[in-house]
User: Fold these one by one.
Assistant:
Number 1:
Amino acid sequence: KEKKKSYQNSGMLHCTTCDLQIENTFVDYVRGGMEIGLMIGVDFTASNGPIEAHDSLHHTSDQDDRPNDVGGNVEH
């Protein structure tokens, strides 16, 4: 519009204050030193077999170490 002969100044805007609000990301919090606790719950009940059987995974299982494996990977 400014190039047209009939153009008139549309006005001016004066700001007396300006307030910027920064929204932090998850990474910003971690880099800032925030400590995080991780809790994992896994229910393998359906795949463990009958609870009465002594060889079922309800009594002994490699699954006991899985949350530690996942937590160790997240930790690093």
Number 2:
Amino acid sequence: MRNPFNHKSRVLRCNLACPNHHTSPPLYPLPLVSLFLSLIKKSSRTSESASPPSDPSSSWFMSSKERPTLGGTRIKTRKRNIAAPLDPAAFADAVVQIYLDNAGDLELIAKCIESSDLNFSRYGDTFFEVVFTGGRTQPGTTKPDEGERHPYSVLESEATREVILPSVIYIQKILRRRPFLIKNLENVMRRFLQSLELFEENERKKLAIFTALAFSQKLSGLPPETVFQPMLKDNLVGKGLVLSFITDFFKEYLIDNSLDDLISILKRGKVEDNLLEFFPSTKRSDESFSEHFTKEGLVALVEYNEKKIFEVKLKEMKSALTTQITEETDMSEVIETVKQRVKDAKLPDVEVVRILWDVIMDAVQWSGKNQQQNANAALRQVKTWAELLNTFCTNGKLELELIYKVQMQCYEDAKLMKLFPEIVRSLYDQDVLAEDTILHWFRRGTNPKGRQTFVKALEPFVNWLEEAEEEE
């Protein structure tokens, strides 16, 4: 190996041999150079003895093909998830066997299912098929599939609440232990309700009873929209199957629950305003609704529906008249509109008088703070539409109802509080209110809201009427 200090060594030897030769001073002190050379030689001998003979082709540096490795680690091959094939038949047979082993005792069956290691998360729909039909059903139908079956299902039981209620409680226990099955119950119920035509009449009644009891027991996993919406298929409605199912449901549910509870469920199911959609198109009328449910003994539901229809028609009439009065439509046209609405909706005369007063006052353009402007606007409105009021206030009872209506509005609206006597005087001047009606209200009025204040305010006008009566 070439010594890197050869050049320096030659310079050193030259300096020693020719002391008188004028050259540059030595590069290193001699003792230091000697020590350094001896260390290099010793290191070279140690390296040669410790390392084996190397390949002539190797170099002092790492080859470009070599790669660093991390010592002490193992590189494992990644395993892929192996999906086990579906086997709903084996699962269904296992559940059926639990039913058979316990002879249909739902308490014991629930305990066995709780302690079993069956894969309910994978076969939840199949489980509820076994609960309802006694075994697995063919895809898309309610027909039984191959495999074991048991005779303790919901559809095999008697169509009575006493027999079906234990099944509801049993399912409730299962869902408390395995809440992930809620979605499966919803799926199966939706599928059954969309296929009502595939069930026998007695089986449909059992489903209706089960559904009603499920709502009564507040069974998890059965939201109202799951029950009502899937049934609204044209073929099911047209055959009358939906009406029959919903009638059995209403009758069963109202045994333990109030009408308000039923209406709440209908609202959540988004069908409260569309109950006629359960009827075939040929029977879709308010008369058919009342006739059908009265015959079935659901008089409370009929009364509720009639009240709702009445409120809707009142609202429609009020909206139409408000528009006409605001636009100052011709009086004769407004009167004709009222008559037609009253005829179509069969509204009582008392409600007509109340509505007319409301729409007349609703059309007033009230001022924010100017009381005098408000008074003038109200009295001007009364004078303008007095003929409309006079047309429908045809007797003393209706006139008295109009005074009560004015009394209530003046009591509830601060800006009209002081206008009560002036409004009554204006209605008298326009021949809407008779003298006897005003005196009757003054002496024997029954509405206590603000009565003392209004009686005192109206007293001067009443005194004038009494004096005029005496003079006559």
